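Sat 14:20. Reprocessing the chain from the morning session after the first attempt stalled halfway. Input below, unchanged.
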Amino acid sequence: MMRFPKPTPRLIEKRRQRTARNGLIAAVRRAVVARDVRCRCCGERFATGEQTPEMHELRSRAQLRGRDPMDIWNRANCLLLCRRCHRGVTDHRITLTPANAEQGADGVVEVERRME
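Finished this time. C-alpha cells:
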C-alpha cells in the first residue's frame, strides 16, 4: 500500500463532474416536461416546428456562474417554452418573472411582452 496515494487525474475528475451534471439536467428536464404540457409563455401545446419545447432557466447560467449545478438546474428555475417564445425571451423581447419568488417556475410566471 502506498503511503501517499496518487491523486485522481484532473481529466477523470472533470469527466465525473460532467457526467453528474448531465444526469442532473436530464432528471430536471424529465420533471419539467411532466409539469409543463404547454408553453408557459403563450399557452400553445407543444408540437414540431415552432412549437418544439425548449427548456429555459429563469435565472440564467451566467447570473448563477460558479454556483452548485443544483442551484442552476432545478424545477423552480427551469420551465418549458416553445421555440418561438424561447427566442423572444433570449432576444429580450419577452420578460418572464415568477409571481412568487419562493416557488419560482413551480408557481405562476408573469409574462411581459415589449413593444418595438
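The mean pLDDT is 92.
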